[in-house]
């Protein structure tokens, strides 16, 4: 029987996940489909029951349900448990719903695809301490990055993640700006300006080292002001597109057992988003 998958969220119409997964199904001759479903917060519990009854093999969860869905699942993967957020649900062979979080590991894969995996002992500056930042901090720790500093507008939020991880330190944006030259990898994870479309810089990159690696988790636009400023300083830049494609590919692997072709997907989406 044809398998079906979904992404639930509010809003959902701009999600690029359906086009990505359906393209992979077609490319790999898998008899399956993936649909976007608009689910409001009030509908979440009944939507999960509906997805289960109607036989979805799995689904993605996006804003604003990543944390709220947890009580409706039967099991959580260790990383999702630590993060307190789920972006992927798998219906296991015994019919249970298991939650995973592929965002953070997707980011690490994208980073390592771009710059290799030899930077695990280098000082990393994580900028931001919201939901997305939390996921990336835990995933980087799990993947062996051991010199993590988190900077955030509200330092207490950064400190809370550091306390939970049991490693690293939290600093202010001002201190980050002043000590920027000490960091080899810098990851922009704030939503500064995202809602208004007027992207702003959390701090200036004047002191950035020329050889630094600078990543942003935003992929639309591909070149955020943060990445533009980093590129002008001679840094190696990593856009958010690889993270988006790899988080989807890891979900796909959880559902179907094999890893889809991420390179051609990244190239296709890059062309759509105006990159070259
Ligand atoms: P997400 O799920 O995308 O991570 P979030 O949980 O709302 O979104 O987190 C937003 C992050 O962006 C936080 O780190 C926030 O800083 P605070 O903890 O101080 O709120 C950061 N942020 C949002 N707007 C910002 C701005 N204008 N300048 C600097 N940081 C900003």
TrEMBL record:
Active-site residue numbers: 66
GO molecular function, one term: NADP binding
Signal sequence extent: none
Pathway it works in: Metabolic intermediate biosynthesis; chorismate biosynthesis; chorismate from D-erythrose 4-phosphate and phosphoenolpyruvate: step 4/7
Quinate/shikimate 5-dehydrogenase/glutamyl-tRNA reductase domain residues: 116-193
Annotated ranges, domain SDH C-terminal: 240-270
GO CC entries: cytosol
Keyword Hydrolase: no
Catalyzed reactions: shikimate + NADP(+) = 3-dehydroshikimate + NADPH + H(+)
Cytoplasm in keyword set: no
Annotated keywords: Amino-acid biosynthesis, Aromatic amino acid biosynthesis, NADP, Oxidoreductase
Family the UniProt entry places it in: Belongs to the shikimate dehydrogenase family.
Physiological role: Involved in the biosynthesis of the chorismate, which leads to the biosynthesis of aromatic amino acids. Catalyzes the reversible NADPH linked reduction of 3-dehydroshikimate (DHSA) to yield shikimate (SA).
Quaternary structure and partners: Homodimer.
Protein's recorded name: Shikimate dehydrogenase (NADP(+))
Organism: Lysinibacillus fusiformis
């Amino acid at each position: 029987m044809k398998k079906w998958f979904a992404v639930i969220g509010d809003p959902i119409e701009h999600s690029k996940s359906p086009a990505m997964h359906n393209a992979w199904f077609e490319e790999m001759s898998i008899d399956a489909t993936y649909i976007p479903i608009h689910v409001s917060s009030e509908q979440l519990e009944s939507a999960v029951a509906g997805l289960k009854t109607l036989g979805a093999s799995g689904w993605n969860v996006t804003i604003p349900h990543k944390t709220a869905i947890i009580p409706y699942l039967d099991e959580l993967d260790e990383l999702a448990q630590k993060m307190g957020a789920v972006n992927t649900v798998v219906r296991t062979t015994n019919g249970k719903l298991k939650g995973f979080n592929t965002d953070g590991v997707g980011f690490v894969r994208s980073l390592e695809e771009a710059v290799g995996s030899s930077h695990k002992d280098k000082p990393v500056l994580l900028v931001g301490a919201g939901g997305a930042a939390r996921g990336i901090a835990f995933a980087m720790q799990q993947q062996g990055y051991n010199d993590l500093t988190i900077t955030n507008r509200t330092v207490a939020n950064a400190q809370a993640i550091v306390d939970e991880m049991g490693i690293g330190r939290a600093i202010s944006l001002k201190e980050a700006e002043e000590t920027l030259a000490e960091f080899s990898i810098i990851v922009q994870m704030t939503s500064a300006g995202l809602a208004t479309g007027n992207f702003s810089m959390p701090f200036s990159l004047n002191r950035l080292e020329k050889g630094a690696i600078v990543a942003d988790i935003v992929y639309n636009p591909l070149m955020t002001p943060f990445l533009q400023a980093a590129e002008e300083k001679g840094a190696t830049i990593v856009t958010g597109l690889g993270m988006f494609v790899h988080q989807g590919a890891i979900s796909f692997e959880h559902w179907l057992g094999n890893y889809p072709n991420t390179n051609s997907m990244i190239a296709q989406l890059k062309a759509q988003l105006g990159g070259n």
